[in-house]
Amino acid sequence: MMSTDENDSDRLLVVYDGDCPLCANFVRFYSVRKNAGDVELINARERPGLVRELRSKGMEINDGMIVMWHGHHYYGAEGMHLLSILGNDSGAVGMLNRLLFHNKKIAAAVYPALAAGRRLTLSLLRRKLIPR
C-alpha cells in the first residue's frame, strides 16, 4: 500500500473515480505534465487502502478528487484549482479549465455541481459510489 506520506513529493498524484466516465475522461485529457513533471493517475477503486487513509484525513473521495503534490493534499475545488494552474493553456479543455477553476472562488462555486453531476452519472449508469 502506498502511503500519501511517501517522500515522492515531486510526483503529482491525482486520485479519482475510474468508474465515472466524466472523471476518467477529464484526467486522461488533462495535460499538466509540461508544468508539473511526472504525473500518476490513481483510480481510487483500485486502491482501497489509500482511500481509507485519505478518508481518515477528512477527504471523502465520493465528494471530490484529491491531488497530492509537494507533500500537500488538495481536495475537490482546491485540487481543480491547482490543476488549472499547472495545466496546458491551449485548446478547448485548457480554456474551459482556466475559466472555471483558475479563480478559487469560482472553482469553489462550480465544483459542487461537478460532484453532483458525477453522482447523477453513476446513478444513471447503475454504478455504485466508492465503497466505505
Topology of this protein?
Elements: E1 12-16, H1 21-29, H2 33-36, E2 39-43, H3 48-56, E3 66-69, E4 72-75, H4 77-86, H5 91-101, H6 104-124
Parallel strand pairs: 1-2
Antiparallel strand pairs: 1-3, 3-4
Helix pairs in contact: 4-5, 4-6
Pfam families: DCC1-like
InterPro entries: DCC1-like
GO molecular function: protein-disulfide reductase activity
Describe the protein.
The chain is α+β, with helices and mostly antiparallel strands. The protein has one domain (about 10-125). The chain has helices at about 20-30, 35, 50-55, 75-85, 90-100, 105-125; strands spanning about 10-15, 40-45, 65-70, 70-75. The protein has a four-stranded mixed sheet with strand order 2-1-3-4. The longest helix has 21 residues, at about 105-125. The model is unreliable at about 1-5 (pLDDT under 50). Pfam families: DCC1-like. This is DUF393 domain-containing protein. It comes from Nitrosovibrio tenuis. InterPro entries: DCC1-like (IPR007263).
- Separate helix tally: 6
Give the C-alpha Rg.
14 Å
The residue ranges in which pLDDT falls below 50 over 5 or more consecutive positions are: 1-7
Number of strands: 4
> How many strands, what sense, and barrel or not for the largest sheet?
4 strands, mixed
- Helix residue percentage: 40-55%
Number of domains: 1
Strand arrangement within the widest β-sheet reads 2-1-3-4
**Distance N to C terminus:** 17 Å
Structural class: alpha+beta
Q: What percent strand?
A: 5-15%
Helix and strand element order? EHHEHEEHHH
Average pLDDT rating: 84
What is the chains' assembly state? single chain
Shape: globular
GO molecular function: protein-disulfide reductase activity
InterPro entries: DCC1-like
Protein name: DUF393 domain-containing protein
